[in-house]
Input
Amino acid sequence: MSNELEGAALAAYFDHTLLKPEATFSNIVKLCAEAKQHKFATVCVNPYWVAEAAEQLQGTGVGITTVIGFPLGASSSFTKIAETRDAIANGATEIDMVLNVGALKSGRFAAVEQDVRGVADACKGRAKLKVILEVGLLTDEEKVTASVICKRAGADFVKTSTGFGPGGATVKDIALMREAVGPEMGVKASGGVRDRETVLALIEAGATRIGASASVAIVNGGKGEGY
Output
């Protein structure tokens, strides 16, 4: 694996991420410049910055990910769908929505599926949908249930964490989620991913996308801090 994933091949796994509330326009410009230089899959920014990032990255092949219902997942389906449509109109190519964790833990599985399906329908043919499970708040059984619901509802990926909740991406959780969704669906590891060794282990366990703010340090063989 280490010999196979070097340089651009490794960089292509990354959503280069900046979700801090204090991020400025100059920070977003820098993020986009780094994404262009290293050929990351996407940048991941808050909805306010989607149009700015789209302008910075036009014609580069780097996608634009944004977050919906972030970071709690407790907004209404109507709001999540409206956020999604607005983000896509502004240039988002991938949507990372937060699962309604409270509804899941209440056993309201039909409501959770409807929530995901509404956003999946808004994305259809226009953007990929990743659903953030916030695994640090879930039991293993709930992680599996949530993953299956997301697959059934039409999501393209399941994702571990927001980076703002407890815990983060682990090899165990990635393997569990991969087993639950099967080989075709995407699995994104995010939250506390800061070094190349961890990234390779997560990919080996079944991750097909990595969310990190330390992307540049990681692909350069170092260790970073942050999301």
Remarks:
- The chain has one domain: 7-219.
- Strands lie at 14-18, 42-45, 63-68, 94-98, 128-132, 157-159, 186-190, 209-212.
- The mean pLDDT is 95.
- The longest strand covers residues 63-68.
